[in-house]
Design goal:
The chain has 365 residues and is of the alpha/beta class. 43% of the residues lie in helices and 18% in strands.
């Protein structure tokens, strides 16, 4: 499936590049140049696309490709708007006006997306339970740090200082803490920041699909990742559960990508049903079984809230996830999907924000 998706994206990107060259060639000064130097005018029109392609090969390839596609879509939008205006009013909109408007509008979109990705918001949720828990608790959820994209180790540590101000009883890291190009120095700094959090019950971690790496070109191993987490007091849960307080249980699932994880029925079969169960599952795509098993709260990440519009919506149509962002209730189970404290590959978010989630759980009375 991924090979087909990549192939389609490559074709769309190539078509977008050709369209952009034609759009730039319509600018009056380039068109005028073409009257005497046709080849030179097309070369000049291709320069912005060639620069983007060069950046894709030497810098952030996903970001460069997405930026180019956004510009192509915005150019197309303004071309269609000009066509409709001409048909309805007989008035023309010059190529210069359309081109300048398209460039400025794209800069605004990507600028806002840059802010949304690099500024970490705090998103609060509040849930209540009738179960006989001993006290109300506050859990902070973070996911999808993908260290090195918008957050290096030091920036991640500063976000942990903000989280500490919320006085959490527990902090849960729900997968994709690192990525293939994360550095060992950033990993050590970020793990040290997790270890310095002062919580009632501790910091709990489950693996995401990126944590063990796909291409193995980062400068640390999965074993070093595990070692840095554990030596900083982070509890790694792999199809395991742990009691916190009197009346709460955290269940950490292996990621779906592992291909070898217990079902929710297996994880819950010996569970004391009077406990309020909090399931950590990186990918939000096992909702039916988690609800049927009787989990109270399921926390996930993975989707980045859509990250770049309309990628998340397309993923939902393809059935990749059960929820893109926010909360959903099935039966007696509440599901929360965070958009992540950072994101993969692309340094701007046009479909979501970066966030950490603060969850207050209130017992009876």
């Amino acid at each position: 499936m991924w090979a087909a998706i990549i192939a389609v994206l490559a074709v769309v990107a190539a078509a977008g590049a050709v369209y952009l060259v034609r759009c730039f060639h319509r600018f009056s000064f380039i068109k005028k140049l073409g009257e005497e130097h046709r080849a030179l005018s097309w070369i000049l029109a291709a320069v912005p696309v060639l620069v983007t392609a060069l950046f894709a090969f030497t810098g952030n390839a996903p970001g460069a490709v997405v930026a180019m596609l956004y510009l192509a879509v915005v150019f197309l939008f303004f071309d269609l708007a000009a066509f409709i205006r001409r048909k309805m009013t007989g008035k023309e909109t010059s190529p210069n006006e359309r081109g300048i408007a398209a460039i400025l509008f794209t800069v605004m979109i990507l600028g806002a997306g840059w802010f949304a990705a690099h500024h970490v918001f705090m998103t609060p949720y509040g849930f209540s339970t009738d179960k006989a828990v001993d006290r109300n608790i506050r859990i902070v959820e973070i996911a999808d740090a993908h260290l090195g994209v918008t957050l290096d180790g030091e920036k991640f540590a500063r976000q942990m200082e903000r989280i500490q101000e919320k006085k959490p009883d527990a902090v849960v890291v729900v997968g994709d803490f690192v990525d293939d190009d994360s550095s060992f120095e950033d990993l050590k700094t970020a793990c040290r920041a997790l270890g310095e959090l002062d919580t009632t019950y501790g910091v709990f971690y489950v693996y995401g699909n990126h944590d063990n790496g796909y291409f193995r070109y980062r400068d640390f191993t999965p074993e070093q990742l595990r070692s840095e987490l554990t030596k900083n007091g982070v509890t790694i849960l792999e199809d395991e559960s742990v009691l916190i307080g009197d009346g709460y249980c955290i269940i950490g699932r292996r990621d779906r990508s592992s291909g070898d994880r217990m079902s929710m029925d297996e994880l819950m079969k010996d569970m004391d049903r009077s406990l309020y169960t909090i399931v950590l599952d990186h990918q939000p795509n096992d909702y039916d079984s988690e609800a049927a098993a009787g989990a109270d709260l399921v926390l996930s990440g993975h989707t980045h809230g859509g990250h770049v519009f309309p990628a998340g919506q397309i993923g939902m149509l393809m059935g990749a996830n059960d929820c893109l962002y926010g909360t959903q209730v099935r039966g007696d189970t509440t599901f929360v999907v965070t958009s992540g404290i950072s994101g993969w590959g692309i340094p701007f978010k046009t479909g979501a924000i970066s966030e950490f989630v603060v969850i207050n759980i209130t017992g009876p009375g």
